[in-house]
């Protein structure tokens, strides 16, 4: 989903959250059904571009993953913080995988249905953000 400011809106700075990847500890991408008894890894893919990004080198960003319950289970939130690497001559414009990854311990998310949202924010610039949401996911407890 588009960010604020969205791609194509200006030449100075734009941001876009393009995907969120979810994998449980068996290593299989598991967007919609996750095992509560395994570690869950999530990473957001976001892209930045524009004339001012070289001046943003080192600026902190915060990626938040929010699991909002759709059943009688508690919500869960995980955060990853990082720093932009936008110095010339090779500014990084795409952040993903280890740049944004959180590892949720096995058992931390209780079995149930959740809406997963992921967003990136810049504490120094509160008006800059990008968001994306997955369809409903289910966290299950495997039966023996």
Question: What would your notes on this structure say?
Answer:
By secondary structure, the protein is mostly beta strands. It has strands spanning 3-4, 14-24, 33-35, 40-49, 60-69, 76-83, 94-95, 102-104, 112-121, 129-140. The strands form two sheets. Strands 1, 3, 5, 6, 9 and 10 form a six-stranded mixed sheet that branches. Strands 2, 4, 7 and 8 form a four-stranded antiparallel sheet that branches. The N and C termini lie far apart (39 Å). The relative contact order is 0.28.
Amount of helix: under 10%
Instruction: Tell me about the largest β-sheet.
Output: 6 strands, mixed
- The rounded Rg comes to 16 Å
* Weakly predicted, low-confidence segments: none
Task: Give the integer mean of the pLDDT values.
Answer: 90
Features:
144 residues; six-stranded mixed β-sheet; 10 strands; elongated
Write a brief caption for the model:
With 144 residues, the chain is mostly beta strands.
């Amino acid at each position: 989903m588009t960010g604020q400011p969205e791609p194509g809106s200006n030449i100075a700075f734009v941001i876009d959250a393009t995907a969120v990847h979810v994998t449980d500890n068996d290593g299989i991408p598991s967007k919609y059904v996750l095992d509560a008894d395994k570690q869950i890894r999530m990473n957001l893919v976001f892209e930045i571009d524009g004339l001012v990004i070289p001046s943003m080198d080192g600026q902190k960003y915060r990626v938040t993953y929010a699991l909002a319950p759709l059943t009688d289970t508690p919500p869960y939130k995980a955060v990853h913080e990082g720093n932009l690497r936008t110095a010339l001559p090779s500014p990084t414009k795409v952040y993903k995988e280890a740049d944004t990854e959180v590892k949720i311990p096995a058992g931390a998310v209780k079995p149930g249905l959740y809406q997963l949202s992921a967003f990136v924010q810049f504490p120094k610039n509160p008006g800059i953000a990008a968001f994306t949401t997955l369809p409903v996911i289910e966290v299950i407890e495997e039966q023996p």
